[in-house]
């Protein structure tokens, strides 16, 4: 018996790492919902609403590399959009499966529920396009090729994709096949030129450091980045969104780099370096404490997802994974590191009937953390309060800095947050 469109999509998602699909069952999506429930290797995780489902898929993708959410057409997909937008900002490969009305209903411009009552059925697809890297309306003829295209796009860009499956197409057999996907590769000449430029800059630098970023976690390149740090001997610090992407128990870790908000010793060192190697890190306002960092663009090396920049020179078609491997073998190891110990929250203080203050609360939270824990924080006070909590081996710290609602863009916001770190916090900070 031929594989149905939905069965084909689910099989391929399962093969790239999706074992669970989050969502809310709803009209138009019932055939897709049923196929998920009946799939032998995928579990349906029902959620209380579509926004929760989207955030659950976001969290799943943080831990597993990919995630999936299924909603109904119109009201369901609209409710999920904020979570999908967050996944886009955070470079997360989330597959959004949308069950739509059958083809006859759409072609007839019928006035049915879950629509705006104007006979237009492509509106919500168009609304989703700015927050996904690729989208497709699945048919029996294109299901095989479009599934591969969307999987390739999601994994290449590490962004969400949108897959619309109408209620009648969901159970139709797939027609045709698609070629086997291939992993992206660097252009050899560009890779060689970029690595030569990076090595030359580091060789000529008196003092250098690394700022690893969240893309390392998204791409599963933690091991490659650690190998580079070990081979180079370079010290590293992390910014807000990037906390714990490399272990804070690593001997080369010197602490958090958060501009002029906190951690003056680390800030002074990083900004005095002749070369700063940014690996998958972004200089967003949240990461730079309201753009209070002072990094000379000519001294920055940016090893990005698909390109490397050395000063003002851009080397395109260079994959981050290839670049890290290319640099690790020939690099000269530095044996002298700065005498900077990572700042901590200090010991647990107070107890009993003492007032609950930041000094009493955050060290207690930090004392709870154990190896391999996953810590989720709000982008505001709790994230800032735990900035200097030094995490044990394997522990991961997650917030949502790029899309977070925050006041850090204005100088007053920076001052308010400085007080938050020193006192019990401003309850009106959001």
Q: At the third CATH level, what is the topology name of the largest domain?
A: Rossmann fold
Helix content: 25-40%
Give the N-terminus to C-terminus distance in angstroms.
56 Å
Helix and strand sequence: HEHEHEHEHHEHEHEHHEEHEEEEHHEHEH
Q: In CATH's first tier, which class of the largest domain applies?
A: Alpha Beta
Given as residue ranges, the uncertain stretches (5+ residues, pLDDT < 50) are: 405-430
How many individual domains?
Answer: 3
| Count of β-strands | 15
- The number of distinct helices, counting runs of at least 4 residues, comes to 15
Task: Determine the structural class based on helices, strands and strand pairing.
Answer: alpha/beta
> In percent terms, what proportion of residues is strand?
15-25%
Q: Looking at the structure, what is the overall shape?
A: globular
- Average pLDDT works out at 91
* Gyration radius, rounded: 24 Å
Q: Largest beta sheet: what is the strand line-up?
A: 2-1-3-4-6-5
CATH homology-level superfamily of the largest domain: Thiamin diphosphate (ThDP)-binding fold, Pyr/PP domains
What's the architecture of the largest domain, going by CATH? 3-Layer(aba) Sandwich
Largest sheet: 6 strands, parallel
Descriptive account of the structure:
With 430 residues, this protein is of the alpha/beta class. It has 3 domains: 5-171, 3-Layer(aba) Sandwich (Rossmann fold), CATH 3.40.50; 188-328, TPP-binding domain (Rossmann fold, 3-Layer(aba) Sandwich), CATH 3.40.50.1220; 358-422, no CATH class. It has helices spanning 5-15, 30-38, 50-64, 75-89, 103-107, 123-128, 143-157, 188-204, 214-218, 222-232, 264-272, 320-328, 358-368, 381-385, 411-422, and strands at 20-23, 43-46, 66-72, 93-100, 134-137, 161-166, 208-212, 236-238, 253-256, 275-279, 300-303, 307-310, 313-316, 374-376, 396-398. The strands form 4 sheets. A 6-stranded parallel β-sheet has the order 2-1-3-4-6-5, sandwiched between helices. Strands 7-10-11-12-13 form a 5-stranded mixed β-sheet. Strands 8-9 form a two-stranded parallel sheet. Helix 2 (30-38) links the parallel strand 1 and strand 2 (43-46). Helix 8 packs across helix 12. The longest helix is centred in the middle third of the chain and has 17 residues, at 188-204. It starts with a helix and ends in an 8-residue tail after the last helix. Residues 405-430 have low confidence and may be disordered.
């Amino acid at each position: 018996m031929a594989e149905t469109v939905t069965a084909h999509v689910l099989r391929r998602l399962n093969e790239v790492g999706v074992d669970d699909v989050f969502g809310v069952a709803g009209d138009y999506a019932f055939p897709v919902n049923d196929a998920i429930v009946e799939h032998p290797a995928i579990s349906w995780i029902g959620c209380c609403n579509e926004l929760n489902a989207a955030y659950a898929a976001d969290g799943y993708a943080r831990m597993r590399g990919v995630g999936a959410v299924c909603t109904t057409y119109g009201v369901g997909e609209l409710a999920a959009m904020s979570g999908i937008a967050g996944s886009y900002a955070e470079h997360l490969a989330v597959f959004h499966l949308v069950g739509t009305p059958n083809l006859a209903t759409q072609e007839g411009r019928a006035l049915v529920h879950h629509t705006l009552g104007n006979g237009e059925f492509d509106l919500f697809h168009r609304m989703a396009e700015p927050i996904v890297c690729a989208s497709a309306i699945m048919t029996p003829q294109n299901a095989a090729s479009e599934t591969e295209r969307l999987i390739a796009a999601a994994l290449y860009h590490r962004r969400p994709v949108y897959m619309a499956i109408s209620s009648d197409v969901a159970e139709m057999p797939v027609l045709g096949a698609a070629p086997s996907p291939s992993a992206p590769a660097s252009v050899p000449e560009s890779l060689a030129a970029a690595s030569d430029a990076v090595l030359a800059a580091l060789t000529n630098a008196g003092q250098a450091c690394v700022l690893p970023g969240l893309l390392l976690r998204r791409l599963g390149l933690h091991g490659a980045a650690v190998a580079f740090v070990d081979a180079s001997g370079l010290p590293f610090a992390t910014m807000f969104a990037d906390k714990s992407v490399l272990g804070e128990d690593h001997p080369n870790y010197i602490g958090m780099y958060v501009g002029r908000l906190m951690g003056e010793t680390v800030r002074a060192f990083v900004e005095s370096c002749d070369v700063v190697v940014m690996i998958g890190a972004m200089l967003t306002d949240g990461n730079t404490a309201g753009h209070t960092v002072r990094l000379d663009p000519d001294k920055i090396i940016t090893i990005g997802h698909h390109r490397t920049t050395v000063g003002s020179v851009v080397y395109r078609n260079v994959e981050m994974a290839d670049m890290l491997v290319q640099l690790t073998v020939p690099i000269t190891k530095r044996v002298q590191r700065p005498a900077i110990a990572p700042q901590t929250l200090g010991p647990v203080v107070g107890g009993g009937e003492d007032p609950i203050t930041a000094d009493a609360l955050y060290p207690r939270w930090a004392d709870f953390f154990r190896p391999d824990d996953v810590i989720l924080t709000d982008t505001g006070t709790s994230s800032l309060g735990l900035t200097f909590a030094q995490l044990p081996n394997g522990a991961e710290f997650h917030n949502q800095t790029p899309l977070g609602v925050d006041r850090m863009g204005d100088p007053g916001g920076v001052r308010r947050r400085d007080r938050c770190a020193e006192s019990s916090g401003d309850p009106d900070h959001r």
